[in-house]
Amino acid sequence: MARRKKIYEGKAKILYEGPQPGTLVQYFKDDATAFNAEKKATIEGKGVLNNRLSEFFMVGLNQIGVPTHFIERLNMREQLIRAVEIIPLEVIVRNYAAGSMAKRLGLEEGQQLPRPVIEFSYKDDALGDPLVPEEYIVTFGWASQQDLDDIVSLALRVNDFLSGVMYGVGIKLVDFKIEIGRIYEGDYMRLVVADEISPDSCRLWDVKTGQKLDKDVFRRDLGNLTDAYTEVARRLGVMPANVTSTKPTLIN
Q1: Cα 186 from Cα 178, distance rounded (Å)
Q2: Which of 87, 68, 17, 26 lies closest to 51, judged by CA?
């Protein structure tokens, strides 16, 4: 069996050359990182859960007309995706004050915002992914003003979808981050949601208890991360309702 060509390895995923031109295979690792990779661990089953959860969200977005890079799930850890040109920004959508926003502005964590707030951070680990205003983004050519308008529109549609899906299973979508990529089809360029959508990239709180069901469990040493992600998957129907084991056994 021929060894696959590795294209890129990040903190949580590996990208391999895909079977057809313009495709990649995205592999989800069990690695967990926080605080710009200052805190690291290997969490058994995390990659399997994130693969299945990201598939669930990407398929849902595609079905409502929000374009994504997702093509199909290949196995329990891998997805076939479209190769995209990633815009070097993290697009952060906040519905409640939490994390760095609460700390930065002295807000009470969990305070509902009057409307969704969209922030942009420049993707550079060495710089700590600093927040950047739209003026910087346009000035340095990371995206045009039209791109930004389209990105905001996509981000708000993703927020509407995720908020509704999560609230339906008793989970509050506090905030999330996505990445956006460009796909070129001849002379036509379109923007798509890329990377992943999972508890790694969202803050998810139980509506009634406030229990955290996201990577803050790992960041703040609040318990077992796999248990938290498994609970999200169970509520969304990605796992059988009668699962009691902490090791993920997901529906094919």
Answers
A1: 26
A2: 26
Beta bridge partners of 175: 94, 203
- Residue 98 CB neighbours (<10 A): 20
Q: Residues 196-250: pLDDT tens digits?
A: 999 999 999 999 999 999 999 999 999 999 999 999 999 999 975 544 444 444 4
pLDDT of res. 183:
96
180, β-bridge pairs: 193
Which sign does the torsion angle of CA 27, 14, 54, 63 carry?
Answer: negative
Lowest-confidence segment of 4-13, 37-46, 237-246 by average pLDDT: 237-246
Short-list 138, 168, 157, CA closest to 67: 157
Distance CA 187, CA 162 (A): 32
Q: Measure CA 116 to chain center.
A: 17
Dihedral angle computed from the Cα positions of residues 243, 246, 12 and 90, in that order, rounded to the nearest 10 degrees: 60
Three-state DSSP class for 74? coil
Contacts 24+ apart (CB under 8 A), 27-34: 27/77, 27/78, 28/54, 28/77, 28/78, 28/79, 28/196, 32/200, 32/215, 32/218, 32/225, 34/215, 34/218, 34/219
Distance, in Å, from the CA atom of 244 to the CA atom of 19, rounded to the nearest integer, reads 37
